[in-house]
Amino acid sequence: VVDPQVVRHLPEDMMAEWRIDRDQQTATLVAPPALVPKLTLPLTPMLGCFGVAPARRQAISTATSGPYGGNMDYRGFTTGVTAYFPVFVPGALFHLGDGHGLQGDGELLGTGIETSFDVQFTVRLVKAGQQTWPRGENADYIFTIGNGRPLDQALQFATSEMRVWLMQEFEWDERSVCILLGQCVEYDIANVYNPAYTIVCKVPKSLLHIQDSGAINPVTYE
Questions:
Q1: How far is it, in rounded angstroms, from Cα 57 to Cα 20?
Q2: By Cβ atoms counted within 10 A, which residue in 32, 44, 159, 201 is the most buried?
Q3: What span, in angstroms and rounded, lies between the C-alpha atoms of 84 and 19?
Q4: Which residue has the higher pLDDT, 31 or 134?
Q5: Which of 20, 64, 14, 69 minimizes the C-alpha distance to 42?
Q6: pLDDT tier at 209 (50, 70, 90 boundaries)?
Q7: 53: which DSSP letter?
Q8: How many CB atoms within 10 Å of residue 43?
Q9: What count of other Cβ atoms lies within 10 Å of the Cβ of residue 165?
Q10: 90 burial via Cβ count (<10 Å: 0-12, 13-18, 19+)
Q11: What gap in Å lies between CA 203 and CA 212, rounded to an integer?
Q12: Cα atoms in the 13 Å half-sphere on the side-chain side of 55
């Protein structure tokens, strides 16, 4: 994420220890550098790696990601989010891990504040789905995930998946989708450290509710 000539100036030892206060929901840097006398940050717990088994009986390292999900390290995958994955094998073989108490966009150092997690989640099968890449929604947005390398490929995957979602499940036409995305789309850079980069394409739910006098409800799937 820096110019090549800068790399040789970066410190070799980037180990940092954080003290987590569960009652206050904060993390404090232990033994901070001289110019950072005290750094205490609010926790924003998120799952760095989760998804389903890939297609064609592949065995792929959880260090990377793809259409099946995997190590996406998106800080938006936190409490209250609904995630959607295409299913490639019987039973889906859902897995999760890589708990982060906090992480900046991109996971620039290759880690967040790594910690153990107790996770509560619910799984439901949405039949006759037509998705290729992971999708998600929270209180304010629907979003799609693209995993690939270089970065523009991940962006193309995420944007193409949003186009499919809006056209097939929201029944928008091609021109309407182009106008909406052209002026209203938002992108998050989720990860630029792993073998596959991760880009998130987001559309505000408020804009979708406005269409057809609110007849479209993106959170309803039966």
A1: 39
A2: 201
A3: 33
A4: 134
A5: 20
A6: low
A7: P
A8: 18
A9: 23
A10: exposed
A11: 17
A12: 8
Measured CA distances, 101 to 97, 120, 153 (Å): 12, 16, 29
SS3 70: strand
Q: Across the strands, what pairs with 145?
A: 200
- The closest alpha carbon to 197, from 188, 206, 186, belongs to 188
Minimum mean pLDDT range among 4-8, 124-128, 131-135, 196-200: 124-128
CB 102 within 8 A of CB 111: no
CB 63 within 8 A of CB 187: no
Token digits for 104? 């900046």
Q: State the pairing for strand pair 65-66/69-71.
A: antiparallel
C-beta separation of 166 from 177 below 8 A = yes
